[in-house]
Amino acid sequence: MRNTARRTGCPGRWAIAVAVAIIALLAFGARPAAAQVEVELEAEAVEVRVAARLLADGRVEVALQVRPEGGAWGERLSPGNRHLPADAEPGRWLWTAPLELNGAEWRVTARRHAGGHFEVALQVRSPGGVWSGRLPPENRFLPRNLAPGRWLLSSPVAVHREEPQIVSFYGHPDVAAMGALGHGTPAGVAAEIAAWAARYDELNGPRGTLPAYHLIVGVAQTTPMPDGTWLRRLSHERISEYVEAARARGMAVFLDTQIGWSDPLTEVRLLEPFLREPFVHVALDPEFATEQLGVGPGLAIGSVSAEQVNEVQRYLATLVREAGLPPKILMVHQFADRMLADREAVEDHAEVALAIDMDGFGRPAPKLYGYERYALSAPSERPALKLFFNEDAPILTPAEVQGLDRPPDIVIYQ
Question: Which helix (H) or strand (E) holds 121?
């Protein structure tokens, strides 16, 4: 197996979603959760599974099996460089030679740990694309005391279409201090968003990108408003300017409310005329939801509860079903635990894709720690990362973002 320290982006348009459930790596035989990645297919769908075994000399051997849709499993296919040495340097990832399966290339990556056990993951790429990040199954460790020679099998993969990577500018009309979106007209800013999206398109293989406006439609205030919400709402006429600009250019729109002393469902319901458009989504910013603290927005970090998020999800799910819309994205910004403390109580709705956005600014290390903690972990389904042109020190480049083990589905520039 070969040595690697490189992290690359995730390709794909029509895609294999890898359910990498390597049963060979289970210490107690529990069925692991599926990890997913997507890659462009050139032929009909197939199912793929991984085989792994411990050899008598302490090495780990890996192989793959495939079957056509509705067919039988084929023989094990053995890639080159498929043995992980028993004395491999602990912590260093090694990989097999590529193995072409149905128009995509696959390889298994593995490493030895200091305790003597082994960890396995999988990577996949489209022809001419880049390797996906490592896909670690939830239970991915091959114990030392496993009987040598016995092949154990993963669950099969599934096939689905991958959504393009979204690249957006965040802000409020005509207010440059609130984000990149405030630096020009909808038409003028659209060209700059498209230029940034093109940088990601060059890096993410055939997956493609979708430029987007991330428009703040409810701005938290430092003084109470007549309705008691501490929130100033953007007029529907101004929102329409961005929605129509997005329609004309094939863009998406996120309508973002800072909530204030209102509640999320009330604010989202006010946006229903726009949410009936298939390309319009919604975002919640708990930072400024401070009513439960008894202080105005900006004086403390606010929060929303899982039930408030669930209320919005139920509303969006009903809207999607009634209007025959594609699934909506519901984004929740988070950079501190208290902003969504009871994440385990957040519901899963098929009509809604929940995106947690790591919204903090500063140095790359804590930003990426927050990205892993908030955006990559459940209940987040579409991880998002916000980058700050002026506050990040330094700002991550598109190549660095795409080099993450799991690049974000949604990139937001403020």
Answer: strand 118-125
For 234-279, the pLDDT digits (tens) are 999 999 999 999 999 999 999 999 999 999 999 999 999 999 999 9
What is the C-alpha to C-alpha distance for residues 329 and 353, in angstroms, rounded to an integer?
5
Give the Å distances, CA to CA, from 176 to 95, 220, 262, 285. Answer: 47, 16, 25, 19
Q: Which residues of 93-104 are buried (b: 16+ CB within 10 A; e: fewer)?
A: bbbbebbebbbb
Helical segments of 183-233, H only: 186-201
Cα 236 from Cα 212, distance rounded (Å): 18
Distance between CA atoms of residues 171 and 169, nearest Å: 7
394 preceded by a cis bond (ω within 30 of 0): yes
* Angle, in degrees to the nearest 10, between helices 236-249 and 186-201: 40
Return the amino acid letter for 64.
Answer: L
Residue 32: count other Cβ atoms within 10 Å of its Cβ. Answer: 19
Coil, strand or helix at 207: helix
Say if CB 353 and CB 381 are below 8 A apart.
yes
Nearest in space to 360 (alpha carbons), one of 406, 313, 304, 301:
301
What is d(CA 255, CA 387) in angstroms, rounded to the nearest whole number? 18
Residue 45 has pLDDT above 80, yes or no: no
CA distance 218 to 172: 9
Give, for 122, the enclosing helix (H) or strand (E): strand 118-125
Q: Which residues contact 33 (CB under 8 A, 6 or more apart)?
A: 21, 137, 138
CA 150 to chain centre: 36
Is residue 91 exposed (0-12), middle (13-18) or buried (19+ Cβ within 10 Å)? Answer: exposed
* Length of the chain as a residue count: 414
Residue-level pLDDT at 82: 92
The dihedrals phi and psi of 175, each to the nearest 5 degrees, come to: -120, 90
| Structural tokens at position 8 | 């690359």
Lowest pLDDT segment from 7-16, 29-38, 353-362: 7-16
- Number of other CB atoms surrounding residue 264 within 10 Å: 24
For the full predicted model, state whether its pTM sits above 0.85: no
DSSP string, 293-318: GTS-TTSS-----HHHHHHHHHHHHH
Task: Quote the tokens at residue 250.
Answer: 């094939």
